[in-house]
Amino acid sequence: MEGHNTFVNDDQEEYVVRVAGPKYRWMWFLLLLLLPLLLLLRFSKDITVVAYDNFSNNNLSNVKVGLKFVDYSIVKTNPLRFFVADSVNLSGVTSQDGEVAFTDVNYSLYQVIFHSGHEAEITAEGGCLASDTVRTLFSTLGTALPYRLGLNKARVDLVFLVLDSDDRQPLASADVEVMVDGNVKKLLTDPSGYVSVPGMELCGNVDINAQMDGYLGDTIVSDMETALQGEHNRTLLLKPGRGVVSFTVQDLENQLPIPNVAVSMMIDGNTVNCVTNTNGVGKGCFEDVKANLQFQLDLKRVSYFDTLTQQYKVSGFERLSERERTFRMRPQKNSLIFRNIDSLNNLPISGVANEVFINGNPVGTIYSNAQGCFTIGNVAPGDEILIKSTHVNYKFQQVKRSGSDVIGNNQYKRDVKMQAKRFAASKPNPQRNCGVHFSGTLLSDVAVGGHISKIYEPDKYGEYVGDGKYANNQAAFPKAVQYTFDAIAVDKGTRLKVYSKPNFQGELLLDVKGPYLINNVKWKNEPRISNFLTKTFSPELEANYPPSCRHWSESNMNDWDYGSVIITCDK
User: Fold this and answer.
1) Would strands 235-240 and 155-164 be described as parallel, antiparallel, or unpaired?
2) Count of H-run helices and E-run strands, the chain
3) CA–CA gap between residue 374 and residue 351 (Å, rounded)
4) Tens of pLDDT along 49-58?
5) In this structure, are residues 532 and 457 in contact, taking their beta carbons and an 8 Å threshold?
6) C-alpha separations of 210 from 161, 213, 235 in Å
7) Which of 26, 372, 381, 487 could be stapled to 443 by a disulfide with Cβ–Cβ 3.0 to 4.6 Å?
8) What's the pLDDT tens digit per position in 438-463?
9) Of the candidates 144, 143, 138, 104, the residue with the CA atom closest to the CA atom of residue 122
10) Are 268 and 236 in contact (CB under 8 A)?
11) Sign of dihedral through CA atoms 268, 270, 276, 281?
């Protein structure tokens, strides 16, 4: 015991005796020595995940659930490693109750203290249900309540085609009825015979019927797997009935078909209140016309002079040759032929609805024919032309042209290029370890605004794409293409093929298996990325993409924008 007392001897002299207490500083030193050992302590917890249907809120059985997190440790043996960041991937399948448990999930005290903010990733995939991925703090998992993960039914937009069974030509304005989620949707085909049906269940069935006056209807009943195999499985063929007046309309000067002609039938001096639009090949028809009646057709179309045909008898008209049932219209003065073409392959697009304005005044809606052409009449050099183009399979396009630019022999200046839409069926939801991160900026472990993006953190410059075949890069990763294509991060176990042209044609630019990180050689000398091959990434990304997996491209990746890619994953 530490203390002191004062004493007096016989000579009255005072003296002080002090007693020193024990010292515990050695215990602090010992504690410092033990601290690294304490950080090696490991704990375990049970994590329960429940998968449920977002629509019905019912729990879902037989759903594959994955749990991924990074296990941080000061030291690990076999082999001996210090300050380790190992990726842990666990998987399981939900029970009849919709639950899956990950028991004895191990983690260290070091992770709790220094990496409590690290995220875990939970994925779920249920066959006919759309895959879902969520990221949450690892520290929040393992509480008394299970972690709930909602899934939706996988859906796809399907496009069907309605044709005349005799000549295989498209039928415009055909009535289509289709069953979606137990409800009947009523739709009309466009001038190219197409009709788009949105939101069909990927694992459901197809039940669709097409009808048109003067034709016998057709029905398709099949499973979705069959319907998705090709357009031939989504084509309805209507057989013409008797008493049908069928004809074709062409341009008098170039013999090109004219779509969207308004045709009126006059019988015995009276006009039948029935108008039809011819389709992309210039064909139209009237039905249920008595065989012994006389009729005459009146044709009207924007940018063309009206045309009145001679008189015919229905029974005799049906026996005429195709050439004799072809009517020609004379274009107005100063007419110019414009063209709707695909932006990737420059192929013509028929049935595009082109809303035309000249000097701000509406001219009308003019449809493109089978060659993608449409005619605008009375164009003067000083005119300002605005064209708004729409099509079921293409994105909306708007262009402005001046009369002085388009008058002449340069067809290129009168082309309206349109970008194809991407349908859900061709692009599944990606899962980590089964996908590719495409970017319009360079990729590294840290982001630098507008120049470098962080791997696995898609932003406005790029996207993370799952396995599949993508016939054009603009549909697969449009954001990366928009900002110039500059980098790719390929997951472990994922194979990527990049072709120089759409539809998997041209030169094979890249054929690699992940992990594989590639940046555009164009930026090799840029100071902010020049150490890309040698720098030490953050722990998780260093584990996924060590220096041996990083590369510069052999050519300028900006030129890869208009190719195609195939992504396949180890199963």
Assistant:
1) parallel
2) 8, 43
3) 10
4) 888 877 677 8
5) no
6) 10, 11, 10
7) 487
8) 998 999 988 887 788 998 887 888 88
9) 138
10) no
11) positive
Give strand ranges (E) for 81-146.
Answer: 81-93, 99-108, 119-126, 129-137
What does the alpha-carbon distance between residue 452 and residue 222 come to, in Å, rounded to a whole number?
Answer: 48
Q: Looking at the predicted structure, is the pLDDT value of residue 98 above 80?
A: yes
First-residue to last-residue Cα distance in the chain: 72
- The answer to whether the CB of 352 falls within 8 A of the CB of 372 is yes
Q: Is 486 helix (H, G, I), strand (E, B) or coil?
A: coil
Q: How many CA atoms lie within 13 A of 414 on its CB side?
A: 20
Task: Answer yes or no: are the C-beta atoms of 61 and 127 closer than 8 Å.
Answer: no
Are the beta carbons of 545 and 527 closer than 8 angstroms?
A: no
373 and 348 Cβ atoms separated by less than 8 Å? yes
Greatest alpha-carbon pair distance for the chain in Å reads 158
Q: Distance (Å, rounded) from C-alpha 495 to C-alpha 132?
A: 22
Does the pTM surpass 0.90? The reply is no
Number of residues in the chain: 571
pLDDT tens string 388-411: 999 877 889 999 999 998 998 888
Does residue 498 sit in helix, strand or coil?
A: strand
Tokens matching residue 370: 């089978």
- Pick from 163, 196, 161, 189: nearest CA to 175: 189
Report the alpha-carbon distance of residue 363 to residue 358 in Å, rounded: 7
Q: Judge if the upstream peptide bond of residue 515 is cis by omega within 30 degrees of 0.
A: yes
Cite the DSSP H helix spans in 56-191.
Answer: 109-114
In eight-state DSSP terms, residue 110 is: H
Looking up tokens 């599949």 gives: 468
- Tokens 């970017």 belong to which residue? 439
**Measured on CA atoms in the order 423, 426, 431, 434, is the torsion positive or negative?**
negative
Which helix (H) or strand (E) covers residue 276, if one does? strand 270-277
The answer to whether 39 and 78 have CB atoms below 8 angstroms apart is no
Residue 359 has pLDDT above 70, yes or no: yes
Which amino acid, 424?
Answer: A
* Least confident window among 73-77, 222-226, 348-352: 73-77
Q: What are phi and psi of 291, to 5 degrees?
A: -65, -25
Contact by Cβ (8 Å): 208, 194 = no
Q: Which helix (H) or strand (E) holds 265?
A: strand 262-267
Dihedral pair phi/psi, residue 528, rounded to 5°: -75, -10
Q: Which residues are within 8 A (CB) of 226 and not within 5 positions of it... i.e. 6 or more apart?
A: 206, 233
- Determine the Cα–Cα distance for residues 226 and 245; give it in Å rounded to an integer: 36
- Per-residue pLDDT, averaged over 137-166, amounts to 81
